Amino acid sequence: MPAFVEFQNVFKTYKMGEIEINAVNDVSFAINEGEFAVVVGQSGAGKTTILNILGGIDNCSKGRIFVGGREISRLRGKELAAYRRYDIGFVFQFYNLIPNLTAKENVELATQICKDSLDAENVLVDVGLGHRINNFPAQLSGGEQQRVSIARALAKKPKLLLCDEPTGALDFNTGKNILKLLQSKCREDGMTVILITHNSAITPMANRVISMRSGQVVSNTINKEPMNVEDIEW
Amino acid sequence: MKSLRKNIFREIWQTKSRFISILAIIALSIGFFSGIKSSAPSLIKTADDYFIDNNLMDFRLVSTVGFDDDDISAIEKAEDVMQVMPSYMADVITTLGNHDSVVRIHSVPESESGTPINKLNIIEGRFPQNSGECVIENSTLSYGNLNIGDTLKIQPNVGDTKTSTYLKKTEFKIVGKVESPMYITFQHGNTNVGNGTISFFAMIPAEDFAYEKYTELYVKTKASASGYSAISDDYKNMIKDETTTFENLSKDAAERFNSGTLADAKKKLADAKKEYSDKKAEAEQQLADAKKKLDDGQKEFDEKIAAAEKEIKENEQKLKDGKAELESSKKTYNEQIAAAEKKLKDGEEQLKNGKQEYQDGLDKYNKEIKAAQQKIDTANSEYQEQYNKFTYETKPQAEEKLNDAKEQLNNLDTLLTVANASLDVLKKIPEEYLTDSQKQKIKELETKIAEYQKQYDEGLAQYEAGKKQLNDGEKKLAEAKQKLDSAQKELDTKSSEGKATLDAAKDKITSAESELREGKLELQIQKLSAEAKFKDAEQEISDGEEKLAAGKTELETQKTAGQKKIDAGKSEYESGKKEAEEKLAEGEEKIKDAEDKIADIPKYKWYVYNRDDNKGYSGLGEDAERVNSVAVVFPVFFLIVAVLVCITTMTRLVEERRTEIGTLKALGYTPFSIIMKYFLYAAIAAILGSIIGSLIGIATLPRIIVQTYGILYTLPEMHLSVDYGVVLISSAVAIIATCAVAIFTCVKELKLNAATLMRPKAPKPGKRILLEKMPFIWKHINFTSKVTARNLFRYKARFLMTVIGVAGCTALIVAGFGLKASISVVAEKQFGDITKYSAVMALKESERYEKCKPLLDELSKDKNFSTILASNTSSTKAYVDSSKKQLELSCIIPQNNEDFKKLIDLRTRVNKTPVELTNKGVVVTERMSDILGVGIGDKFTMLISDEPYEVTITGITENYASNYIYMMPSYYEQITGNNIRYNTIYAQINNTNSELESSLATKWMKNDNIITISFVSDIISSVDDMLQSLNVIVLVLIICAGALATVVLYNLTNINIAERVREIATIKVLGFYNGETAAYIYRENIVLTIVGAIVGLLLGSVFTKFVVETIQMDMVMFSKENNPMSFVWGFVLTAVFSAIVNIIMYRKMKKIDMVESLKSVE
């Protein structure tokens, strides 16, 4: 079975005056469909850049990236937007909800541009926010906001769910609940989830752990028996 | 502090678009404000400098009789007078192209020392140095074909007056082109010669004028020397005072004139009176003489007629006698003729008988002759027969016989000869030798010879006998012939005898015939001569008769002619008498007039004109004022918008730098130094903006506007005059407002503690909007609209700002177009709908209608006029309370209402219902009623011949240009008790055009009763000129409005995007295409623009009204109705500007980097 996500010698180079800095330096890895992959590394290890490139919101300088057999590193402009629209679900560290829209409307913001989407209310019920559908983000707690954010990503029925430090701004328990939600989505719905974190304590819950340092992949290990989130402590 | 300063510049660099926004909006407002505000002063200063440099007069004095040196020295001595320049002026006519133009000729301004008053600017060529040279005005509008080197030819007559009364020469060589401060517009005023309009001016040396006295004086007073602007109230007040001085001087001069010239006039009058009475006596004597002559003539005529009649009678008698004589002689003649004719008849009878006799004799004679001839002829034929028989029958036969005989004879002879010869031969032979045969033969021969001899002899005898017989026959025939000839001869004799006898008879007859013929001829001749004689006599008689008839006719003719002559003489005498009487009466009248005139002392008058009487001059002041009014209204609005823009921008800036402020605070910077940064930021933007704006504004707008007015005025290069106070104040307002905003926002932030500040400001929580509480609406709008709706109300400040900015833009455009429409309506409605007449003719004197009638009739014969109406038109003042506003206006009293309705449409503005002119009161124009605050049924006071009369308003009519009071003659007579007199004629011209008008003017100006003809088209064209200049102002407004809208929308959209960059990045990550992202933001912009535009339309309507109210003058009412097109333009142009901004912003939005935007919080 070919890999669902594949990075082949990917570079991301920034030019700072005379000096060239490789934020991503010759990265190659592969992730299979339905896997829960965790990319772990210190701040500035290049993991966010990788996620951004994979999510179609940034371009790589060199190398090829395939998602579901399609080379996305070649996409530009509108194609890239369409890729984000139909293939990717993004969960941010700071949720990035539109403050002027209610939870349901934030989800609808995503669903209204998709051809085949889930019902906003159902998704919200699914992520456990059935009772807060009509609340504005400001009226929700951090965890709830992140759930809305996840619901917004899931409602589009993406092929790939990308999460950038989803628990970074949350307390331990809330974070745990969020991770549980993500894990269950992966396990129950077969969603491919890629999560980046600096917290290596989370890694046991993943099928695959890719650790990075200074823009390079240090290791890419498969965890044959991932633990349940509930069992992990950090 | 150094790092702080660095920080400021870095800050500016980083937020350059925002900085530029503030700078631009301030530059725009300040530029617009100071530019417009400097326009009017620049216009005035340009004119003022021109007037000062060229020493424009303050007063122009014109005297009814001219000025002498006494007058001049009196004026020179007067208070305030600085300089006096005597001058000459004449309006004469020249031919330009193919029509006559009036040229006003002045003497070239000269001064012994210093600048002459009204100094000319020489544009081309030189000043006149010699007599016969001239300079003309440097303008191409009024005339085009005169150039330096050409000759200005003046026509020898100006109306009835000879040009030589004014000028010594009629040809002037053009040596230069000049500009005069007296003529700053192309309208040169009116005159009472030619077509009534001065086309251009020319200046010649004073020596070429033929006047004895100066015609005008130019006076310079302290008013202009005091440095007041020529259009300032101070100047006007001084002028007012000085006018009084000159009017007093005028009175003095009049007295001087009265004691000198007038006394002479009085003496002259006395002389004239004496002369009159002398002439009267003389005339009466002459009349008496004439009467006597006439009577004598009558008598003589009667006598002559009687004599002539007598003569005619005598001649008639004579003619009668002559006729009788003729009759009697005719009778005698007829008798004589009858006798002579009888005689002739007898002679003819005789002749006839003689002729018969002769004919008988002739017949007989012919018969006898014929018979005798016949006998002879018979004999003759017998003879001829015999002769023929003998000749052709007997004689030839005989002759033949004879010939035969002869031949026989000859033969015999031959035989004989032969025989003899043979015998001889034989005989010669001697006998001895003769042989017997020979002897025999001799024997035979001898016998034969004998026989032949015998035969021959017998034949000869026979022949001789036959010959004799023939001769006898011939003899017999000759005898018969002789007999016949003699018989013939006898007959001939007899015949000739008979013939002679007959001929004699015939001769007799012939002579008788000729005698008879002669007799007849003679009779004929006699008859003819007699008849001729009779004819002559008859002719004589008829001639006599004719003559008599002619004589009679002549007598008749002469009688009537004589009678006629006598009658003519009589009537001539009568008319002469009448004329003499009339003349005497006229003389009496004249003497009376002269007496009146002398009694009427103020007739000696100076006309005191000041600069305001110059058309262009007063217009300049009004134009400047109008520009100034606009300058007040529009830019204030700009400033408000600018301040609002600065507030939002600065607020945003400070809010964005919240973390930084917190950090600085935490680092221990004093609030003052933190505030300083934003204060300086704002101050730099505002100060730079003010400087750039005012520089650009002052450099461009006054030039544009003054140049626009340059179309109307002849002014030198613009002299910029900046109202620095206004520029400074407006800049200060902008700077202070901006800085205050900066301080205020900073202070607000600084109240929070450093820690709070360093945390990102919680985004403004979402809120339900009012609309959501109306589910029936909310449910039915789609998701994106909901988002838009909620966003709109989320940022209320921005909402307000955008709406105000856009509304301001729309309002400006609406006002610009609305203003133009309101003003153009003046021309359109006034001259299209209301004023229907084409020309106004001023009459020489006010006359009763009966006296005007001949002229009106004459005018109505001209097919070019369709309606002609006499009226009384006068300038008057109207007021409600004499101490308050007094409005100067015209009063028109039409002779009849029917024609008046065709010439001026009186109607209400709103409903267009006709307003009737009645004899119960007056109809006034709407503007007049507005200014005085009077309505229908109200009373006001108006001056008629300087007397106040209270009148009632019965109607208010739509009218735009000038103010009028209309009333019926009956009402006039009712309120004043005076009879109405008419002094103007209004005329409507069919298919009017400038050529037709020019020719009509030339034609009718020749009429003594018409002083001037003015045409409505001239007014229209001057109004059009004014509108042309307004177009530029409208354009300036639109450009500024566009700039305003662009800056406001750009700035606000920019802030909007900056504030919501995370939101935009987020939706981009969600997969929104660029177009969708733009739409997400623009939907709000579009709604805001539409709302702003709608508000702007309302505002614009109010604004237009306000501006129109502000700039409208007493003289003009601008349309108060909204012009739909200006709303359309306002909306469309606003949409266009908004679209331009959105296009610019689209690029910016596209460039938003999702990665950068999303990580900023970290």
Report on the structure:
With 234 residues, chain A is of the alpha/beta class. In chain A, helix 4 (120-126) packs across helix 5 (142-154). Chain A has one domain (32-58, 86-231): 3-Layer(aba) Sandwich (Rossmann fold), CATH 3.40.50.300. Chain A has helices spanning 47-54, 77-87, 103-111, 120-126, 142-154, 172-189; strands at 5-16, 19-31, 36-41, 62-67, 70-71, 88-91, 160-164, 192-197, 208-213, 216-222. In chain A, 28% of the residues lie in helices and 29% in strands. Chain A starts with a strand and ends in a 12-residue tail after the last strand. The mean pLDDT of chain A is 83. Chain B is elongated. Chain B has 1162 residues and is of the alpha+beta class. The longest helix of chain B has 196 residues, at 233-428. The chains are: A alpha/beta (234), B alpha+beta (1162). At the A-B interface, helix 2 and helix 3 of A face helix 13, helix 21 and helix 24 of B.
Summary?
The complex is a heterodimer of chains A (234) and B (1162). Chain A has helices at residues 47-54, 77-87, 103-111, 120-126, 142-154, 172-189, and strands spanning 5-16, 19-31, 36-41, 62-67, 70-71, 88-91, 160-164, 192-197, 208-213, 216-222.
Query: Percent of residues of chain B in helical segments?
Result: 55-70%
CATH superfamily caption of chain A: P-loop containing nucleotide triphosphate hydrolases
- Greatest contact between two chains: A-B, 36 and 31 residues
Looking at how many chains there are and whether they match, the oligomeric state comes to heterodimer
Q: Treating each run of at least 4 consecutive H or I residues as one helix, how many helices of chain B?
A: 24
Secondary-structure element series of chain A: EEEHEEHEHHHEHEEE
Uncertain stretches of chain B: none
User: Whole-number radius of gyration of chain B?
Assistant: 71 Å
Shape, principal axes of CA atoms of chain A: globular
Percent of residues in helices of chain A:
25-40%
Q: Please state the overall shape of chain B, judged from the principal axes of the Cα atoms.
A: elongated
Average predicted local confidence, pLDDT of chain A: 83
Low-confidence stretches of chain A: none
- Relative strand content of chain A: 25-35%
How far apart are the first and last residues' alpha carbons of chain A, in Å?
Answer: 35 Å
CATH architecture of chain A: 3-Layer(aba) Sandwich
The strand order across the widest sheet of chain A is: 6-7-8-3-9-10
N/C terminus separation of chain B = 29 Å
* Number of structurally distinct domains of chain A: 1
Using DSSP, what is the number of strands of chain B? 22
